[in-house]
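Per your request, structure below.
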């Protein structure tokens, strides 16, 4: 019986020739990422162990990104605990470098790896064909101490991509469309695998955006076929694949979807569910108080270029806050070189340091009661970006920027 990409990665990590959905295997992990959302809890548990030790410190990467800079004395204490522990044990540590998943993609992840991250959007790593999955701090601690964990082999949903996205339509619109199609529970504990001729039309930024949001359909992980675009990206960042897996011709999928990229339209996910998707034009005229361009989903240089091109020579609407937050320091530096930061500043946007920012809704751009945010962040449930009685619409960089200019939800083609 043939195997899917997810099954092949698990088999390799388990040291066996074949696995099938429903099997449980002990696996060797390639990498472990944790951020300031929960690392302080992991440290507290570690310090209570009878024989605390780290199996392989070289596999660990810790990143401060959720509350940067600190928003309170409590957060400062949490960061200090993380910083001190990392220094004591020689753990690779980033602070101020950007959002954890972007930092990982730029510096660490490679094809064929099995990676645990103490953050739900770790599935973003599938953009280069790595099995990334989010875990809680208890599972993270076990893996940190032993170097291993267990995995229930997931079934796989296959998405065959055909055609090419039209001008003004983005990968963000594609994945929101897919989530709307299968539902927020449509891929529960499954792998979402992407391939087909249409995949070749999507750059690495597009692929990260797609894989990153698959957890919003309940996916255990997301994976894309390794191709020349993958190899070129890894080479550019000084890495080689560990494995370059693709699914076998006789691999068994739970379901196969054929997606015509040229049929995708600009999409908005309405409050308060990410699968509550409608064509963006159905939300035209909805008043907004704030717009956010950033996050691990849409804060890369390609997204900033889209926003800057739209807003150049224009102004943010009166009484609207438009926060622009590059996903990493590297993205920020590139945006500076290209004059993109100047463009946003001249428009009246607020450009922030690289971090989770509004998407996390804890330290920057928090919205108040009855306020409306349009965002390139990852989630739109109640209270995600501030007050429990606020409203979040999710959309692409183009739709968010266009809305910031007009002061109400609109699409780029209507500016």
């Amino acid at each position: 019986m043939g195997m899917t990409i997810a099954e092949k990665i698990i088999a390799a990590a388990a040291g066996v020739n074949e696995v099938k959905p429903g099997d449980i295997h002990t696996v060797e992990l390639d990498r472990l990422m944790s951020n300031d959302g929960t690392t302080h809890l992991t440290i507290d548990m570690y310090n209570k162990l009878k024989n605390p030790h780290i199996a392989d410190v070289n596999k660990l990467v810790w990143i401060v990104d959720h509350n940067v800079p600190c928003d309170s004395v409590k957060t400062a204490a949490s960061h200090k605990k993380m910083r001190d522990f990392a220094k004591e044990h020689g753990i690779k540590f980033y602070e101020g470098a950007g959002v954890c998943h972007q930092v990982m993609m730029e510096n660490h992840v490679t094809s064929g790896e099995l990676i645990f991250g103490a953050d739900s959007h770790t599935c973003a790593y599938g953009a280069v064909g790595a099995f990334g999955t989010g875990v809680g701090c208890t599972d993270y601690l076990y893996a940190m101490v032993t170097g291993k964990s267990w995995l229930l082999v997931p079934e796989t949903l296959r998405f065959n991509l055909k055609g090419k996205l039209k001008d003004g339509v983005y990968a963000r619109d594609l994945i929101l469309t897919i989530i709307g199609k299968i539902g927020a529970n449509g891929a529960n504990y499954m792998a979402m695998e992407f391939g087909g001729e249409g995949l070749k039309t999507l750059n690495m930024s597009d692929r990260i955006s797609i894989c990153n949001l698959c957890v919003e359909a309940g996916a255990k992980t997301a994976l894309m076929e390794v191709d020349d675009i993958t190899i070129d990206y890894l080479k550019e960042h000084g890495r080689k694949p560990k494995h370059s897996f693709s699914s076998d011709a006789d691999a068994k999928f739970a379901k196969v979807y054929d997606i015509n990229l040229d049929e995708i339209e600009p999409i908005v996910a309405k409050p308060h569910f990410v699968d509550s998707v409608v064509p963006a034009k159905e939300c035209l005229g909805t008043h907004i108080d704030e717009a956010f361009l950033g996050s691990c989903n849409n804060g890369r240089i390609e997204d900033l270029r889209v926003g800057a091109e739209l807003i150049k020579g224009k102004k943010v609407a009166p009484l609207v806050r438009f926060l622009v937050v590059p996903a990493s320091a590297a993205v920020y530096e590139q945006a500076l070189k290209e004059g993109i930061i100047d463009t946003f500043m001249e428009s009246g946007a607020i450009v922030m340091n690289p971090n989770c920012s509004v998407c996390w809704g804890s330290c920057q751009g928090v919205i108040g009661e009855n306020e409306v945010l349009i965002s390139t962040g990852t989630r739109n449930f109640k209270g995600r970006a501030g007050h429990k009685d606020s409203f979040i619409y999710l959309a692409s960089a183009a739709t968010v920027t266009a809305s910031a200019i007009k002061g109400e939800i609109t699409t780029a083609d209507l500016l």
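Residues 80 and 392 are 32 Å apart (CA to CA).

Regards,
D.
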